[in-house]
Design goal:
heterodimer; A: mainly alpha; Helix Hairpins; 2 domains; 11 helices; 73% helix; extended; B: Helix Hairpins; globular; cell projection (chain A); cell membrane (chain A); transport (chain A); transmembrane (chain A)
């Protein structure tokens, strides 16, 4: 009897602190994931870097040998200045003097990368005033961007996800969850091809030395807002229609971000994912009268409001049939 | 989504919002252009002068050879290889630096001073980020969950006396200020001392990092001429994670606090709004009452 008591108290302990256990596993998983990434990146990139360093050493030695009047220290000083300048996007090479980093369209592109928090770093504010303005601009602009994106994404999700899913569910009679999953997968497919594959193909054509993989890599790194900055379009020498190109890229980045968020929102609304996420959340103790009798996610509001709107119209047309119809409509989503 | 309830307040009018956003972008572009174009032109002229002076001093050099050399150096630089000094500098892809890089990918900061240059590295980076970014979002959201649950009692404050409301608001403000000091003021001081930056540059670095913009013009622990203690980068990584978690905590709290402050102010003026009309915290409007039977 003691054993069963102890067993049950253990179980109760685990159950009560289930979300704490889940959170602990989450932290562990996160750290392990970082370590895993570090190991793989290190093993893939280190040999290549080693090779590059050796090549560079040989080149520097050869250059110093060829031009004996140059001392190593002076060369290093010069190189230091050159690299400092290139850090700020200013190139010393004579053939790259055509492109300005801060004409209007490039500044627009820069502003959009700041607000979307991508931040390539190919152009950075050089002056102190620019840096200070950048901070103030972001402090106001990033919440503004969040608000803007939330508003747009919610609107689009209603039209792109909720209405079609509801349509297929009601008219064709499939189960709501199946329709939702199929729709989410389809939407993901369409978005990936429209916002990754097609732009990657376009970039690989427009940019001289990008192949398809590099363009795809650029699209992914930009739309996930990581923005490493190793590939930035429109910086090539003698780029034709540079201004238009930069504006086009700005629009692509904003639209792509909106599309990614719509897909994310669609996936997050899936029932299975909601259950998965709830595993990690702390349970709030609600007072009895505060718990809604029907949970929000079992009862989709747009369907109710849509049907309410629909019912008003029906009411005007055929009065005797309203009672049966309205009760059936309300019962339908509740049962799922 | 943090701004969801704000949206319902706004009435869902997207078009003016879109217009305002585009105007904000254009405004930013104009001001950046005004501030920076001159500085850029100045930098260019300076460096061209230096180059000419350098070539004058060493007449055995011809411009073409120098440019070729510089081109190769810059390409190597972009890949993160520093040609200064002898090449016994610590590698950019040893375990600690790769760990730091993995962290910047997963948090979407993405400095870019270091980037995978092999094809295999780039492909792996894509898949790694695909799994890592959602993991990061879940992780950061849950790091502050306990604290937010406690702070969320601010929602049910209508039932409580006015003084306790004021105390709660003050307590919250104190918490926010303390957090700002610990996350945004002290670490930049440390960084500027260790890296040799001014405090303004350190603060700029801290801001750009924590907002996940991550230009990469300032990165801690990358100066080859300095000796860092071995845990320096790990400490910086911990600071970044804590800072991001704290931001994830306060970002939804900020508008909520503002909203409550407005309500408090309105109430004190006797122009209070019945709270039944306001949206509840989950961001969805309360269920509309629908007659079941006619």
């Amino acid at each position: 009897m003691l054993q069963s008591l102890a067993g049950s108290s253990c179980v109760r302990l685990v159950e009560r602190h289930r979300s704490a256990w889940c959170f602990g596993f989450l932290v562990l998983g996160y750290l392990l994931y970082l370590v895993f990434g570090a190991v793989v990146f290190s093993s893939v990139e280190l040999p290549y870097e080693d090779l590059l360093r050796q090549e560079l050493r040989k080149l520097k030695r050869r250059f110093l040998e060829e031009h004996e009047s140059l001392s190593e220290q002076q060369l290093e000083q010069f190189l230091g200045r050159v690299l400092e300048a290139s850090n700020y996007g200013v190139s010393v090479l004579s053939n790259a003097s055509g492109n300005w980093n801060w004409d209007f369209t490039s500044a627009l592109f820069f502003a959009s990368t700041v607000l979307s928090t991508t931040g390539y770093g190919h152009t950075v504010p050089l002056s102190d005033g620019g840096k200070a303005f950048c901070i103030i601009y972001s402090v106001i602009g990033i919440p503004f961007t969040l608000l803007f994106l939330t508003a747009v994404v919610q609107r689009i999700t209603v039209h792109v996800t909720r209405r079609p899913v509801l349509y297929f569910h009601i008219r064709w009679g499939f189960s709501k969850q199946v329709v939702a999953i199929v729709h989410a997968v389809l939407l993901g497919f369409v978005t990936v091809s429209c916002f990754f594959f097609i732009p990657a193909a376009v970039f690989s054509v427009l940019e001289d030395d990008w192949n398809f993989l590099e363009s795809f890599y650029f699209c992914f790194i930009s739309l996930s807002t990581i923005g490493l900055g190793d590939y930035v379009p429109g910086e090539g020498y003698n780029q034709k229609f540079r201004e238009l190109y930069k504006i086009g890229i700005t629009c692509y980045l904003l639209l792509g971000l909106i599309a990614m968020l719509v897909v994310l929102e669609t996936f997050c609304e899936l029932h299975e994912l909601k259950k998965f996420r709830k595993m990690f959340y702390v349970k709030k103790d609600k007072d009895e009268d505060q718990v809604h009798i029907i949970e929000h996610d079992q009862l989709s509001f747009s369907s109710i409001t849509d049907q309410a709107a629909g019912m008003k119209e029906d009411q005007k047309q055929n009065e005797p049939f309203v009672a049966a119809q309205s009760s059936a409509c309300v019962d339908g989503p509740v049962n799922h | 989504m943090p701004g969801a309830w704000l949206c319902s307040c706004w009435g869902g009018r997207v078009l003016p919002l879109l217009l305002a956003y585009v105007c904000y972008l254009l405004l930013g572009a104009t001001i950046f252009q005004l501030l920076e174009k001159q500085a850029e032109a100045q930098s260019r002229n300076e460096f061209q002068l230096e180059k000419l002076r350098f070539l004058e001093n060493y007449t055995c050099l011809d411009q073409w050879a120098l440019e070729q050399f510089v081109q190769v150096i810059m390409e190597a630089w972009v890949k993160g290889v520093n040609p200064k000094g002898n090449s016994t500098n610590p590698s950019n892809w040893d375990f600690g630096s790769s760990f730091f890089f993995a962290g910047t990918v997963v948090t979407t900061i993405g400095y870019g001073n270091l980037a995978p240059s092999t094809e295999a590295g780039q492909v792996f980076c894509v898949f790694y980020a695909l799994l890592g970014i959602p993991l990061n979002v879940i992780f950061l959201n849950n790091l502050g969950t306990g604290l937010r649950a406690h702070l969320a009692t601010i929602e049910r404050w209508e039932d409580q006396p006015r003084r306790s409301q004021l105390l709660r608001v003050l307590g919250l403000a104190l918490f926010l200020t303390l957090g700002t000091l610990v996350i945004l003021i002290f670490p930049p001081m440390v960084f500027s001392h260790v890296e040799g930056w001014s405090f303004g540059e350190g603060f700029y670095f801290a801001f750009i990092t924590l907002s996940t913009i991550g230009f990469g013009d300032y990165v801690v622990g990358t100066d080859p001429s300095k000796h860092y203690i071995s845990v320096y980068r790990s400490l910086a990584a911990i600071w970044i994670l804590l800072g991001l978690a704290w931001l994830a905590l306060i970002l939804p709290l900020g508008p909520l606090l503002l909203h409550r402050c407005c309500q408090l102010w309105l109430l004190s003026r006797g122009l209070g709004v019945k709270d039944g009309a306001a949206p509840d915290s989950s961001g969805l409007p309360r269920p509309q009452k629908i007659p079941i039977s006619s």
